[in-house]
Amino acid sequence: MSNSSISDIQKAFSAVSELKNNGINFEVWHARVRAAVHSLGTPTILDTAHRSASYDQRIAAAIQRKLQSNLFMLINMLTKCHEIIFNLIKHFEQTTAIITADAEHQLFSIKCQSDGNISKHLDDLERQYNHLISLRHKINDSTWINIIIASLLAAYRPIIDSLLASIKTQNKIGTELSTAYTPITLTPTTILTAVYAEALSYNLHTGKSSNNHQSSCDFKNDKKSQHSASIAESRLSCSEFHD
Questions:
Q1: Can you tell me the distance from the alpha carbon of 69 to that of 75, in angstroms, rounded to the nearest whole number?
Q2: Domain enclosing residue 132, as ranges
Q3: Are residues 84 and 142 in the same domain?
Q4: Using an 8 Å Cβ cutoff, are 13 and 21 in contact?
Q5: Which residue in 7, 25, 63, 178 has its CB near the most CB atoms, within 10 A?
Q6: What is the band of 114 on the pLDDT scale with cuts at 50, 70, 90?
Q7: Which residues of 177-207 are buried (b: 16+ CB within 10 A; e: fewer)?
Q8: pLDDT of 236
């Protein structure tokens, strides 16, 4: 309703949080702004100019009060709600593309360092992966698997080789036993679970804490790498790959 008072508008926008400069909360913010104008009886004001220019300006002012400083400076000269929303969407489409590209680059760049902790490394890797997903950037399983493997030190390669060998053997047996057998594949979860388990097993074997600053993936010789492979091989079973 174009006769909504300032107090009505303030009340309607009370549940709208401030839109952050980086736009990380834009989706929720936009939804709440739409809910606010809908409660005022003017749901189309964000899509087209309102018949009352003064009312449009009052709602526009309410929207601008919900912006952080950089965004406010970007659109403070606009007096129509639909123009503000259009410009914000356009701005964040460009910004999100840059943020996503940077986040993807960071994900590919994460490597397990010799002075780090393997559990923390995997946590950081998964956190960055989930950040990319939150940006609605799809990463297929094969790419995610390659990222995980490439991030590990060479000492963990025997675990991956053991997983692949086990899968190959199980698929061969499965197809020989039944024509209805569904082949199993290596998954990101399987790799992460195996590496986490190996790190824990190695810590228990050496008496080191999982919080030790020396990386459990920083193996010093081939004997330890062989120890990794043998534990991974003994741990594998058909049930694990069907999870």
A1: 10
A2: 110-241
A3: no
A4: no
A5: 63
A6: low
A7: eeeeeeebebbbebbbebbeebbebbbeeee
A8: 39
